[in-house]
Amino acid sequence: MVKRIKQFGYSKKAAPYLFILPFMLSFLIFFLYPVISIVQMSFQSVLPGMVEYIGMENYKNLLNPTFFKAVKNSLAYTLITLAILIPVPMILACMINSRKMVGKTFFKSALFVPTLTSVVVAGIIFRLLFAESDGALMNQIIGVFGKSPVKWLRNGTTGFMVLIFLAFWRWVGINLLYFLSGLQSIPEEIYESADLDGVNTWQKFRYITVPMLRPITTYVLTISIYGGLAMFTESYMLWAGNSSPNDMGLTIVGYLYRAGWEQNNMGFGSSIGVFLLIVTLAFNAVQMYISNKKERA
Amino acid sequence: MTKKKINAGIMLIFLILSVIVLFPILCLVIGALKPSSEIIRSGLNARIDLDIMGFFNFKSLFTSGTEYFIWFKNSFLLTIVQTLLSLFVSASVAYGFAMYEFKMKKLWFSCMLLIMMIPMEIIMLPLYKEMITFQLIDRFTGVLLPFIAAPIPIFFFYQFLKGISTAFLDAARVDGCTEIGIFVKIILPLMAPAFASMGIYQGMISWNNFLWPLIVLKSNSKMTLPIGLSTLMTPYGNNYDILLAGSVMAIIPVLILFLAFQKYFIAGMTAGGVKG
């Protein structure tokens, strides 16, 4: 027996399975099984002690205004954050990359600080900065311009603006650092030879920088899609709980949380999960298709 | 436009941006020094009024016997344990993928990439049911067990190990070292710089983790800091003294670590970018 164990220790064939065993178990128990079971549960009515197959009933119940609102909110949030938080940090990174500038290190660190605060603390700060009274910071600022105080978090449009601003605040610094690390891997010579050919700044950006940054852009895009579609905590903190006036801050995950935990309707919650799974896979497929096509072109 | 003018313009942009980014945190600190009645009345702002400001909120945080420091301790312990465990396990998995050939390696590797793309929130319902079955509800084990083999650290370590020459490993084998011995005695020490970056990445994730602990942990004494803080946020604002002082205290340890290990922080938090 001891000899057997010893042999095993020296075996190059058995070793890899031993090393990746934790991943295999974790994948099967905490990923694959849950995925299968969420699909299964989405066709069931799951009540304590009673599980019943009900066909497409959960999916039919999905067609309600609250769900559409949650989907609209999540998609709008994802698309708007993508539209702002990719080009803006990219351009900012290009601005400071090869420039000798006073305070460059300070700016990099300062913009990074919000990444250190948790969403919970960030949410507390923003909820109180955008409070309703005329003494809250944002109302003070618009007061300078002669505007009367706004109930930021009670109005759909302004409430959504606060959400986007919170996302910008938390992510602009880290995305900038991603793009900076990408820019540092572009060889300086390319720009020098472009200078010799008389290429202007815009052309350099368009035909050298953007294509060379593609791997980093793809990465930032992937994590932004992930973060946008799965957004929950930001809205939970801004509205001090999962229910906001008129559900203006409700996201897909928030609706899933409401169905699964607040209303104890696990079958219906599962159908929301399956929907989000399909949306996530679709987003990723489109993104992969586009970046593959660009690479070949 | 001269180069100097462009430089000045860019500096101005970054200056404004830094103010926008740092100002909310400043307002939080100023707010934490004001009585909670003032916060309820006017929210957060930058007005400094020394007549009403003082350290009373921090004093009551320490003396009024709130559960704040229990939450703090819970978060601290969970962060340390989850980070150490997941780094060790992920290093082992990454080593298996990077250094060996085995059956269905490609399939398992794609499985890992798949997990990276799919938000955990999608499967949290069935995961929660599993935790009930395993009797891990309201226990710290339930918070960390499903996420120990974490795909991002695995991927990062995999990339790191791929860059190491493996020729000298065979020499170790000839000398009679077991496969596990090679991993523990030779590879783990080599991975120290990768551990530093991923330790910070994983530590930040655990320290700030919200939704899953919110679902798993039920009793007040088990809550982590983010969840505890969120329970203090009520529409009535009766806990604002503790809430604001507590939020400041939650940022301080991370800020100190950041100032001390800035380089590792930036490397760790942008680590995923290497994968492109």
UniProtKB/TrEMBL annotation, chain A:
InterPro entries: MetI-like (IPR000515), MetI-like_sf (IPR035906), UgpAE/MalFG_permease (IPR050809)
Every ABC transmembrane type-1 domain range: 71-287
TM region positions: 20-43, 75-98, 110-130, 160-180, 216-239, 266-286
Membrane topology: Multi-pass membrane protein
Major subcellular location class: membrane
One Pfam entry name: BPD_transp_1
Keyword Transmembrane attributed: yes
Keywords: Cell membrane, Membrane, Transmembrane, Transmembrane helix, Transport
Locations listed in the record: Cell membrane
Protein family membership: Belongs to the binding-protein-dependent transport system permease family.
Name listed for the protein in its UniProt record: Sugar ABC transporter permease
Provenance organism: Blautia celeris
Lineage: Bacteria, Bacillati, Bacillota, Clostridia, Lachnospirales
TrEMBL record, chain B:
Record's bilayer topology term: Multi-pass membrane protein
InterPro entries from the UniProt entry: MetI-like (IPR000515), MetI-like_sf (IPR035906)
Stretches that traverse the bilayer: 12-33, 76-100, 107-128, 140-161, 182-204, 242-261
Organism listed in the record: Blautia parvula
Pfam families: BPD_transp_1
Gene: araQ_3
Record-annotated ABC transmembrane type-1 domain positions: 72-261
Protein name: Arabinose ABC transporter permease AraQ
Superkingdom, natural source: Bacteria
Protein's cellular compartments: Cell membrane
Family: Belongs to the binding-protein-dependent transport system permease family.
Predominant localisation class: membrane
PROSITE patterns, A to Z: ABC_TM1
CDD domains hit by this protein: TM_PBP2 (cd06261)
Protein keywords: Cell membrane, Membrane, Transmembrane, Transmembrane helix, Transport
